[in-house]
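Section 5: illustrative case.
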């Protein structure tokens, strides 16, 4: 199971300050806190490109073995620290979350049999 969160920075933070905090403070908090880390299979931070006009500052992707692991990560003092830390850099009222099952892969890697540009040879 994956959690995909579309995130926005706090209005008082620059893009650079937001990204610095997300990458160097919040990510390590989750990675280095055993009570949080043990429930995750993967955690990825995808910053939006500077030229992106979607209104989002990034996307966080967390992968869990089960719904129960997700719920377990949200309980206890470590989860409270994680949520409190989100207030340091996120506009938490704007966060949108989607829970997904396994993906349906439509394209997996470059097309074969074509030229280097991907067109017919």
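Designed sequence:
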């Amino acid at each position: 199971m994956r959690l995909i969160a579309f995130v926005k920075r706090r209005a008082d933070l620059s893009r650079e300050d937001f990204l610095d905090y997300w990458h160097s403070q919040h990510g390590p908090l989750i990675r280095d806190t055993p009570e949080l880390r043990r429930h995750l299979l993967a955690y990825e931070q995808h910053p939006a490109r500077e030229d992106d006009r979607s209104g989002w500052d990034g996307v966080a992707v967390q992968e869990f073995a089960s719904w129960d692991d997700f719920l377990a990560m949200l309980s206890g003092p470590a989860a409270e620290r994680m949520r409190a830390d989100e207030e340091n850099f996120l506009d938490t009222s704007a966060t949108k979350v989607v829970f997904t099952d396994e993906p349906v892969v439509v394209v997996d890697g470059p097309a074969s049999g074509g030229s280097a540009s991907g067109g017919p040879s």
